[in-house]
Amino acid sequence: MSGKDYLAMLDDARKHLPERVFEKSRFEIPRTQSFIEGKKTVFTNFGKIASYISRDESHFCKFLTKELGTGGVMESGKLVLVGKFSNFLLNEKVNKYIKAFVTCKECGKQDTLLSKEDRVWFLKCEACGAKRPVINV
Ligand SMILES: [Zn+2]
To answer: Which CATH entry fits the domain spanning 27-102: 3.40.630.10, 3.30.30.170, 3.40.50.1980, 3.30.1330.10?
Structure first.
């Protein structure tokens, strides 16, 4: 296969992917993976996403359980939630968390740090230096 053919093939592959995939070249958050087991929902890549976005698992867990209005236990990288929740809904909540606690509102980058100062949580951007308080979970 020639180099040209290869490029054409890549082009073709890109056409089949949704546009938003290319919006962020560096920061691709893994999609939520979960399954329902009885009356519980097991969020299997919870820990992986938490480490990917460099956020504390318990903070992330607290937000999700509050948003979903349920209880949850962290179990070796997984989050077991009480109740049945669709993967789509979990993904939405994860995106909401990222928007609130990871993404810099000034520059849109995710190179941020979450820290607590005098009982208030701040999100500080390492890329542009912006700092803003965030809600408590
Ligand atoms: Zn920024």
So the answer is: 3.30.30.170
